[in-house]
Write a structure and sequence with these properties.
The structure holds 2 protein chains of 2 kinds. By secondary structure, chain A is mainly beta. Chain A contains no helices and 12 strands. By secondary structure, chain B is mostly beta strands. In chain B, 0% of the residues lie in helices and 59% in strands. Chain B is globular. Classes of the chains: A mainly beta, B mainly beta. The interface between A and B is large, with 74 and 73 residues.
């Protein structure tokens, strides 16, 4: 089992702090952590993620954004989603994705993840929960 | 705005802890709510509204969306839409799991927060105009904190 704890806060908006918190327990056999340097063309990210349950990343660059490209090839027509993890920010990629908001949502797994920058390189810390 | 995510688990008799903190600067406004996702709950994010600061008029834009599924057994889908109403493929999160999305000024290279396409060369070029939260399974109370910032 893995436990994920999240706290998000905004201080002093009109003198009032606001925050949200959450804790969840995820079925897991292992946790793998590492770091990958991302360049400006798509390359497979965290190769061992394919069988994972969740990927959490932190873009440690202070100036360069990172695009995470998710391959949702199990839909009838091949689709990709690109998510921006801006410089210095944290991203979470769940393994399951839906096709749209309508009823009868089809759910598929992320088949692969690739990452790139717009230009330059960025070091990305990652944690994979299997 | 400060975001901290910590993962802990035991592996081979050892405790593993991975924790990271990130700060989003220049946040000037917040949308904060804790509610229960219905079959389709849709929130329109205030993009393009105006505010004043120091006598000047600025536009405010969505900067960061943070959502946590607080349901004990529920599964929640998070469905961002761009200004055309197009919904990208949506993340599906279980109990206690967070999800973050960022609109972007392009300062770090990419001009948007997300994209979806049939092309594998896509990069994030669309920003989020609306976001919907839909229960997939069970009861899904969720916590939402959106940070907005001045964009002009």
């Amino acid at each position: 089992m893995a436990t994920i704890t999240t706290t998000v806060s905004i201080d002093s908006i009109d003198g009032e702090a606001k925050s949200i918190t959450g804790t969840g327990t995820i079925e897991a056999m292992s946790i793998v952590t590492g770091k990958q340097t991302v360049g400006n063309s798509y390359e497979t990210f965290a190769t061992s993620f394919i069988t994972g349950n969740m990927l959490i990343v932190k873009n440690t660059s202070s100036t360069v954004d990172v695009s995470l490209r998710l391959d949702l090839e199990e839909f009838t027509s091949k689709r990709y989603v690109s998510i921006n993890v801006p410089a210095g920010q944290i991203g979470v990629v769940p393994m399951l994705w839906g096709n749209d908001k309508s009823s009868g949502m089809a759910i598929t797994r992320v088949a692969d993840i690739a990452a790139r920058t717009d230009s330059g390189t960025a070091d990305v810390d990652y944690c994979i929960i299997y | 705005m400060t975001i901290t995510v910590t993962v802990t688990g035991r592996q081979g008799g050892n405790t593993i802890t991975w924790s990271r903190t990130a700060t989003v600067s220049d946040i000037t406004g917040a949308v904060h709510r804790t509610t229960v996702a219905s079959n389709q709950t849709e929130l329109e994010v205030a993009v393009g509204s105006e505010t004043t600061k120091g006598g000047a008029i600025y536009s405010t834009g969505l900067s960061t969306i943070a959502v946590i599924n607080n349901g004990a057994n529920g599964i929640l889908s998070v469905q961002p839409q761009d200004s055309s109403g197009t919904t990208i493929r949506c993340g599906v999160i279980g109990q206690g799991v967070p999800f973050f999305l960022y609109n972007n000024s392009g300062a770090g290279g990419f001009s948007g927060g997300f994209s979806y396409d049939s092309s594998n060369g896509l990069t994030p070029t669309s920003d989020i105009d609306k976001i919907a939260f839909v229960q997939v399974v069970g009861n899904c109370p969720y916590s939402l904190l959106i940070g907005t910032k001045l964009i002009s």
